Amino acid sequence: MKRGLVWGALVLAGCGSVACGSRDEVARVGDTSVSRAEVVLQQQGGGTLETALDAVVDRTLLAEAARREGLLKEPLLAARVEAARREVLAHAYVEALGVKASTEEALRQRYTSQKEALTQREVHVAHIVVYVQPQATERERVEAQARINKVYARVVGGEDFAVVAQEASEDPATGSRGGDLGVVREGQVDPRFFAAVAELKPGAPSAPFATAFGLHVARALEAPRTVVPSFEEVRGVLAAQARHEAVEARMKELRQDITVKRHPERLSAETTSVRSEGESR
């Protein structure tokens, strides 16, 4: 939802801000108070505080006129105002829960407790790829398979893998390096690719295999090893987990603490009524 619409809806919904009658009030438009915070928020789009104040006053004039002329009596507009208020408050509350749940100390404790689960395998690998587009015809797929089979025959026939990669790989970035893809980690590449290379002995080529990107022949340059990602590497994942769990836990508490009464039988009738009123104007 756009910031202007949210702000305008909140003005329509009440006093305009928490500044009603307070020293934070920087303008009053009819019955609506304008706070310094609203002006600072408007200024985030650029300009000076003075121009931001002018802009807020102009929008408040329109909102005040809308209220005086009874626009809030229109069900759809009233619903939009309440939806804006609800979304602003809900978003702010979720953000606050997330901040509280993802402190440095909390994330480091989570990292320590999840170290075993975070363990991943990685392997230094080289590959030769023949690309196959998702929309490729059957003939194009057959031709691609023939090319990768030829590559495989050259490699198992004793030709240097790096030379074949430079000559035949359709990935110019790795092909120029003899196919060297660097270290790939489990969960960060196509699962089919990792499954194929993780079982290779160093120096041994794989048989041709397919991924979403095309057909490959790969070679492990080193033996696979198991690693634990550093805290910084997984910090974002840990923070997302913490925020999600905090919101889910709080939602469970709220469903128990706050009474909710639903009237689903009224939905179709109310929807029809609102639509009819909107169509009649």
TrEMBL record:
One of its GO terms (molecular function) is peptidyl-prolyl cis-trans isomerase activity. PROSITE patterns: PPIC_PPIASE_1, PPIC_PPIASE_2, PROKAR_LIPOPROTEIN. The lineage of its organism: Bacteria, Pseudomonadati, Myxococcota, Myxococcia, Myxococcales. The keyword Isomerase applies. Residues 120-222 form the PpiC domain. The keyword Isomerase applies. Residues 260-281 are annotated as: Disordered. InterPro entries: PPIase_dom_sf (IPR046357), PPIase_PpiC (IPR000297), PPIase_PpiC_CS (IPR023058), PrsA_foldase (IPR050245), Trigger_fact/SurA_dom_sf (IPR027304). Keywords: Isomerase, Rotamase. Pfam families: Rotamase. This is PpiC domain-containing protein. Transmembrane segments: none annotated.
